[in-house]
Amino acid sequence: MPNETINTELDQAVTRAHAALLRRQQPDGHWVFELEADATIPAEYVLLEHFLDRIEPDLEQRIGVYLRATQGAHGGWPLFHDGAFNLSASVKAYFALKLIGDDLEAPHMRRARAAILAAGGAERSNVFTRAQLALYGEVPWRAVPVMPVELVLLPRWFPFHLDKVSYWSRTVIVPLTVLMALRPRARNPRGIHVPELFTTPPDRIRDWIRGPFRSAWGHFFKHLDVVLRFAQPAFPAATRRRAIARAVGFVTARLNGEDGLGAIYPAMANTVMMFDTLGYPPDHPDAAIAWTSVRKLLVVKDDHAYCQPCLSPVWDTGLAGHAVMEADSAADPAVARAAKWLRARQVLDVTGDWAAARPHAVPGGWAFQYANPHYPDVDDTAVVGMLLHRHMQAGGGDPATEEAIARARDWVLGMQSKGGGWGAFDADNDRLYLNHIPFADHGALLDPPTADVTARCISFLAQIGMPADEPVLARAIRWLRQEQMPDGSWFGRWGTNYIYGTWSVLCALNAAGVPADDPAVRRAVGFLLDTQREDGGWGEDNETYADAPRGRYHRSNPSQTAWALLGLMAAGDAAHPATARGIAWLAACQQPDGEWEEAPYTAVGFPRVFYLRYHGYRLFFPLLALARYRNLARGNDRRVAWGF
Q: Where does 260-347 show beta strands of DSSP type E?
């Protein structure tokens, strides 16, 4: 353990980081940080403004600055910082810059165009990009897989039903099917088109829907797409009108005020276009609030602007609260304010879409965003539940907090999938054949159980007192053991990647009382020790979602280093030399203001498709790791007492 000098330096690092995080707290007690994706969302926002002819030149110029700054050395745009060229993101970014007014012969536009053509042209972009191009008339609608709006009328037993796909797919698909049925054309007041991005004129392309198919299901669904394409014109007009009305009813019932349908950009943007296509005037209450919800996602600064995919205040507040509690105590007024803010956002009176699979579960979860009552998730619920419980243990609770924790527990229990794991938003959302329909070329239509979310639920239930031999936890732990990789790691669905998953599971096993010498724990520790970098830190590339080596990157990152350290401490290795080296690296790269810099993206929307940079991760995770290390060094018991 550290000597007196190192202890003093560690105290100072914790104090600076703690103060830095408190400076970021909002007056009402919550934290919210920017949530950044790739160029796709800002580019789509520009396309949306031109679809509607609601162009704001100053805003678009600032978005243009952002898009030019994120262009890669390869000429196109990546899905994450320093990542490889991505065709679909590049097509959208190029189109947006052309709409903004960039000169086609400007060097950055010429490089982008060359990279897009070298990758096969816009005709080889993904389904969502081709749908955007179809709205502008750049490609025919046959370039997009058939998704009849009539699918909203299908009975629940049907192999494809909205209840069988994930919440994010559901909210994106429903308004999009209306657009695909009505086939509107963007207003496009400047008459901008991008024929130069195609290697073959779109009207001559016959193989829009093509492989490689990932299974025999892919070939089957390709043939079904052909059949539906011929059959769709014969669908009765009355049925189509009824289907459109059902789709609109689905959207309006979940409109969610200024937080928007599903509280995610693609669903919200599709909703805006749907209302516009249906003839709703801009001042119609539904159309107006849908547009307001999209605008709420904008980040506008002096020199640039971009659009976020969603907002993350509940997640940010839960994570920041844990870090503050570790650094000081749960009696800190900042934690009390955060707990009060979070309690007010528990979903208690809305039965969301999750009830289709779990009709007997009682609402009690938290959503990720300011408001999203139809779509709470168990990951946020577990993190908030553990925060409230720890706050209570330190004397900051009351009967209302106890009730909130009990309701959260009951909802999480109700959302466990049959195999023992948990998905994020739905239970048993694992019909894998649906990931092979042509529309799902992103392979992310579903929300099956994952190790990181399952681990968080175990951590929560164990922390509040559920014994490990309780059937719920026993099944979940058994499921996690089955998911461990041969190298000792676990896959990370919502954070990058095997470091995130391994940290999450080690916390869960510790909370459930699995001993530190358990073979699964030892293999996981071995993975973390093997992947530590020479400088003492850890980093992991998002390319590990493809075929890059697990747990490795060309640099160390603060958030991923903190995860590895928290995992080692949960496994009983706070005194290991590797832990001391990691702590030293974190302390050494802290800035004078108490914060850390982290440009790489260390979180995930959809593996291999959509990645995220939580701007708060570089603050609260390093603080949590440093403070925990200090606390364990000071105490007689070296076991981490909390699930998180």
A: 298-300, 305-307
